[in-house]
Sequence to fold (325 residues):
Amino acid sequence: MAVYTHVPAEDIDAFLTRYDAGRLVSAKGIAEGVENSNYLLETTGADGSGHRYILTLYEKRVDEADLPFFMDLLDHLGARGIRVPRFIPARDGTRLQQLAGRPACLIEFLTGISVTEPTVAQSRAAGTALGAMHRAAEGFTGQRRNALDLPGWHDLAGKCGADLDRISSGLAARVAEELAFLDRYWPAELPRAVIHADLFPDNVLMLGDVVTGLIDFYFSCTDIRAYDLAVTHSAWVFSHDGAVWHGDRAAALSAGYAESHGLSDAERAAFPVLCRGAALRFLLTRAYDWINTPADALVTRKDPLAFLRRLDFYASAGPADLLGA
Ligand SMILES: Nc1ncnc2c1ncn2[C@@H]1O[C@H](COP(=O)(O)OP(=O)(O)O)[C@@H](O)[C@H]1O
Ligand SMILES: N[C@@H](CCOP(=O)(O)O)C(=O)O
Fold:
């Protein structure tokens, strides 16, 4: 459940008067997501014909100062044909508001569903959409440091400390070993670009095998471009618990990416290391949340060990195994 900030319907209705969006008809908290509070709003629409919007209130990990970067990036991608949600301007032109004491935005609603168990065809479509997004992002001049990069992983591991062993015996040592490996082999010289950095199936809206929207750009940043494919790979080509590897989905994801963007030889060669980094990143953020979220909190904690299993898989795989021949 990701509604951290509860906003009375009357307050949402009053908030809507700042926009040309009509009056509130219904507001429902959205259960999916873990970072921000999201509501699905139905309104009468500016012309009375009804409309849907997403209302997002920004919580713990989103820094208000980063919102202009996300807004400009989505404008840039949208103008180049990538289906991403627009931030709706209020009547006075501003897109960032305050509501219930939090930064808040009204966002375009996109149709589509997030698949929970992607098919091979859907994995291919996700790869194609990621590559198309990377092409469209070329020329975007905004920059944002990835707070969850290798130094950030060290920092998170330090914050989790010995509590990692409460999640699984020996985990603290395994994380330290992996960080030492990545310190030595992280391919920092690979091309950098603006990346999504969290393109999990829940952030890709689809109708059948067609991608209808990419959402949740709140981790987007400037980092190694092929790392974005590694993040996507880690999210799409395993069972949820990380125990089962789906090689057919992996080959399709990479074929889709090759169709719209592609990897250089250097990126292919470094791909297993990038995947190890991606697996460690999600292991650590999940571990941090696991340790710091009370078991009875409304938000569902995600299992860190699902990414330890992926990490173990990546540590024994080569580029051809992960990307298909
Ligand atoms: N623009 C949008 N159009 C349609 N649904 C959306 C949109 N933005 C968010 N959602 C819905 O809200 C859920 C949570 O949004 P998300 O941005 O992933 O939250 P969080 O950042 O908290 O993880 C998504 O899984 C999706 O169901
Ligand atoms: N994708 C991350 C958590 C971030 O959640 P999202 O709902 O913002 O995609 C994970 O699975 O650990």
Observations:
- The radius of gyration is 20 Å.
- Residues 33-35, 198, 200, 202-203, 216, 282, 285-286, 302 surround LJ64HWYM (ligand 2) (CB under 6 Å).
- The mean pLDDT is 95.
